[in-house]
Amino acid sequence: MAAKKHPIFDTATTLGKLMLFLGVSAVCGVLVAGLMVPAVALTGNTATSSIDFFDQLPDEMNVGVPAQSSKILAADGSELATFYDQNRTAVKLADISPFMKKAVIAVEDARYYQHGGIDTKGLMRAVVSMVQGGGRQGASTITQQYVNNVIIQTYAANGEYDKIKLGGDKTAGDKVREIKLAIAMEKKYSKDDILQGYLNWVLFANGNYGVEAAASYYFGVHAKDLTLPQAALLAGVVNSPTIYDPVANPDNAIARRNLVLANMLDQKMIDKKQYDGAVKAKIDLKIHANKNGCTTAVRAEYFCEYVTNLIVNDARYGKTKSDREKLLYQGGLTVKTTLDPKLQDAAQAQFANFTPMTNNPDKVGQALVTVQPKTGNILAMAQNTKLHAPKGQWSTEYNFTVDKFDKGGNSLGGSGGFDVGSTIKPFTYAEWLNSGHKINDMVDASVRKYPLGFPWRNSCGSSTGIYDNNYPGSQDLQNAEDGRYSPITAHMGLVLSLNTATVAEAAQLDLCNIQKMMTATGIHLGQDPNKPYDLSNVSSLLGSGEVAPLTMASAFATFASGGVHCDPVALVSITNAKGDKFPVPGANCKQAVRPEVAAGVVHTLQQVLVNGSGWQIGLRYPAGAKTGTTNDSQQTWTTGFTKGLVTSSWVGSPEDKNRSNNGKLIAGQRIPYVDGATYAGKAWQSYMNAIAGNYDTGGFPEPPASMLNPIVVAPPPSAAKDDAKNATKPSTAPKDPKKKD
């Protein structure tokens, strides 16, 4: 590092020589500093008052940290997206090419290491030239330019554009103040510190602030790797970024570069051989276009949006939303996330086989989201749209996989979930086991009538629901296929996804406890995460409630992990440009379901892929899953797992949630009936087979033998078979859950 200067009134350096010259010339300090005031002879008293004015100016300036680009990284450290108001990545002077340091000094301030902030020789020449009618000449040192850049860009970063003054807008007082600040800066910082700051703050055209951003943009290299001709080219730009822009005005840029090289040769910074080779070099730009925000993300743009919403909604990152947005766009954050690029790319690739972005005239939505059991890490979040798509592709700002709002009521940009169909049934089954029933206990799945007044139990509220074709607006409870109405084990009732089996179980349980089981595993309404899944109507037991795919994946992960529930997490770490660490939300992992209950649910869900509703979508690894289909195939699902991964796959219409998928163009065909296994299941199968081997694919623990022993039980209460002759409350009729799976 160069030694610090202490130049105030040192007549060999700065202010003393300046004031001496002014006294001799009888030109006031305001004239010298401003270089804008007409040259007139002033009295000695005026000169003295100008010196007093100069002394009274403030000499403190808070340089602070320049606005720097933030970046979001995947779990492997690869960059997903960048955010900036000023595209800048600050670097140490040691990480800048020696050619760059020499080049900018050669062309902007040859006496940089000799003066104390003001180059009095240059300043005197400028004043003499103007006094003699020679016009205005530049006299700003690197230190003065640094001061000017800090003032302007700090105002810009704070949105105070009205305070910015450029060139001719500056008054004599403004120039005098900049001189005073430059002198003060030289007292406070070393020459190398100032040069480092200057090279990190200055504009290099095309929105690139600082030499690291410029080196990356123009040549695709780091600042430390700039060659002599590259460094000379960039050094030439700073004098006038518009005129010497190498993209817009390459001839001007080359001429300016060669001037910089000539100055370097004259100042013995390079030798003649280096000079000759550099002036002959082609400009050879390798433009790496700047990318700003999630719409230009390398991958996973909706995950990127989800992450940014987590940051701007969280008071840990600033008092107001505006403060948090400023931190994201100016704070030089490095945000490391949980996303696994291999999984993300594999998920995104699935849509080409089903609902491609360029040939999806019916706008059928599709999404895949993956979480890791026991950590809550979100590993992939993909859908078949873009935030801002080119013509011919589907654009939407809605993230199909997440809640509409967070728990604080802030927007997450999500669709708010979809009716989940039969993927909700395992949670009734889990409470069946949790309450002491056995896997192979019999339930009477032949019961189809649950008339008005049926004694549904709900100790934390009330529940209604009528399945009775004698009641206006209702019908008998239906299964997917005729011939499935008979007593059956609870296990096979879930394997075959029989509505009548699930409702028969619920008729013997407290619906409050079913709701508590759902809440324990993380299920909540997608429109309002503060509200539990609503069981005020028993139709919700069969899936007439909207839940986001991410929530469903997280809930199934509770079973796959032996009953441990973890909140979904996307953030691993956040640090700013100074290396300060910010807190990130934790997964809050805890034992939410008894291990033996989780094992019992997994035991049954594995059979779904063997001889149940998902028999055609099995994996090559130990796995379990549940399919789901709502009324008229409006929403179709498969949520399933291996020991190391849980993925929720959804196909439906996000824009019209009541529209059927039947007959829509999917996978290049139109078929009359679509269920959860048809497309959502096939996408889940293909994706999981491709990537599950990257994580744990071991076997699952078996439930205890005592849970497997069958116990023959009596059929549900006779009230379930009674007809309601005098029903008078049609509003209590449930939504008609689709009889399919």
From TrEMBL:
Q: Name one GO molecular function term.
A: peptidoglycan glycosyltransferase activity
Coiled-coil region list: none
Q: Which GO terms describe its biological process?
A: cell wall organization; peptidoglycan biosynthetic process; proteolysis; regulation of cell shape
Glycosyl transferase family domain ranges (all copies): 77-264
Q: Name one GO cellular component term.
A: outer membrane-bounded periplasmic space
Catalytic activities: Preferential cleavage: (Ac)2-L-Lys-D-Ala-|-D-Ala. Also transpeptidation of peptidyl-alanyl moieties that are N-acyl substituents of D-alanine; [GlcNAc-(1->4)-Mur2Ac(oyl-L-Ala-gamma-D-Glu-L-Lys-D-Ala-D-Ala)](n)-di-trans,octa-cis-undecaprenyl diphosphate + beta-D-GlcNAc-(1->4)-Mur2Ac(oyl-L-Ala-gamma-D-Glu-L-Lys-D-Ala-D-Ala)-di-trans,octa-cis-undecaprenyl diphosphate = [GlcNAc-(1->4)-Mur2Ac(oyl-L-Ala-gamma-D-Glu-L-Lys-D-Ala-D-Ala)](n+1)-di-trans,octa-cis-undecaprenyl diphosphate + di-trans,octa-cis-undecaprenyl diphosphate + H(+)
For region Disordered, the annotated ranges are 702-741
UniProt keyword annotations, A-Z: Carboxypeptidase, Cell shape, Cell wall biogenesis/degradation, Glycosyltransferase, Hydrolase, Membrane, Multifunctional enzyme, Peptidoglycan synthesis, Protease, Transferase, Transmembrane, Transmembrane helix
> In this protein, which residues make up the domain named Penicillin-binding protein transpeptidase?
475-639
The record's annotation in SUPFAM superfamilies points to: beta-lactamase/transpeptidase-like (SSF56601), Lysozyme-like (SSF53955)
A Pfam family that this protein carries is Transgly
Q: Which residues cross the membrane?
A: 20-42
Q: Which InterPro entries match?
A: Beta-lactam/transpept-like, Glyco_trans_51, Glycosyltr_51/Transpeptidase, Lysozyme-like_dom_sf, PBP_transglycosylase, PCN-bd_Tpept
Asked if the keyword Protease belongs to this entry, the reply reads: yes
Q: According to its UniProt record, which protein family does this protein belong to?
A: In the C-terminal section; belongs to the transpeptidase family.
Its recorded name reads Penicillin-binding protein
List the source organism: Arthrobacter wenxiniae
Source taxonomy? Bacteria, Bacillati, Actinomycetota, Actinomycetes, Micrococcales
